[in-house]
Amino acid sequence: MTKSELIELLADKNPQIQLKDVELGIKELLEYMAHSLANNERIEIRGFGSFSLHYREPRVGRNPKTGESVQLEGKYVPHFKPGKELRERVNIF
Amino acid sequence: MALTKAEIAEHLFLKLGLNKKDAKDIVEAFFEEIRQTLEDGEQVKLSGFGNFDLRTKNERPGRNPKTGEDIPISARRVVTFRPGQKLKNRVENAPPAQEE
Predict the structure, then answer these.
(1) Which of A1, A41, A56, B64 could pair with B69 in a Cys bridge, judged by C-beta atoms 3.0 to 4.6 Å apart?
(2) Backbone phi, psi, residue B7, to 5°
(3) Which chain A residues contact residue B54 at CB under 8 A?
(4) Is A93 helix (H, G, I), strand (E, B) or coil?
(5) B33, B25 in Cβ contact below 8 A?
(6) Which of B1, B20, B25, B26 to mutate to test the interface with A (most CBs of A within 10 A)?
C-alpha cells in the first residue's frame, strides 16, 4: 500500500472529512514527524511504536568501485520499535 | 518530551486549520490503517518517509538471560521499518538528543 492509496482509503472511511483535508493532513503529519526526528525528538505512538534516532560512530569506509579508503563522519539514523499492539496483531503465529 | 498523537493533531489544527475533531480522527485513522494493512500481510510504503515491511522468522534457539535456561524462540512475523533516503538525509546531522 502506498501513501496515495492510504489517503484514498482514509478518505473513503471518513466521508465526514473533506478529501483535501485528509490529503493535506496525512502529508503534514508525515512532514511533522520527519521534522521532529530531524531535531532528534522522539515520537511515541501508543500501540503503534516509537521512532527515535540511533548514533553511528565515525568509521573508515571504502569506495566499492575503487577500493579507496574514505573517512566517514558519525551520523544519526532513524530507528523504529514496534509497540505491543502492533507486534501482537502482526504476529500470525 | 516525546511527540505524541495529541501533539500531532494539535499541529494539524494550528498549521492547517483543520477542526480539532477532524485532526484527531485523521491521526488516529492513519496509524490504525497502517496497523490493519500490516496485520493483513501487506507492506506499507510512505514515499519520502520510509517503508513498513513484514518479515517471517523461523523458530530459533534462545535462552532465558536470567536463569540461563535454553528456551526456543518461537516462529513469528515481525514489522521492520526501512527509512527512505530522504528521511535518512534529513536526520543524519541532527543535534544531539536533549536530556529530559
Answers:
(1) B64
(2) -75, -35
(3) 90
(4) coil
(5) no
(6) B26
d(CA A53, CA B85): 15
Which pTM does this prediction carry? 0.91
Q: How far is B66 from chain A (nearest CA, A)?
A: 22
Of B22, B74, B97, the CB nearest to A21: B22
**Phi and psi at residue B45, to the nearest 5°:** -115, 115
Contacting A residues, span 38-77, partner chain B, CB-CB under 8 Å: 38-51, 53, 75-77
Cα–Cα distance, A2 to A11 (Å, whole number): 14
Which run of H or of E encompasses A57?
A: none
Indicate if ipTM > 0.85: yes
Can you read off the three cell numbers belonging to residue B72? 526456543
Which pLDDT band, with edges at 50, 70 and 90, does A92 fall under?
confident
Q: What is the pLDDT of residues A2-40, one digit of tens each?
A: 999 999 999 999 999 999 999 999 999 999 999 999 999
Give the number of other CB atoms < 10 A from CB of residue B77. Answer: 17
* CA angle (A36, A39, A49) in 5-degree steps: 45
User: By the CB < 8 Å criterion, does B16 face chain A?
Assistant: yes
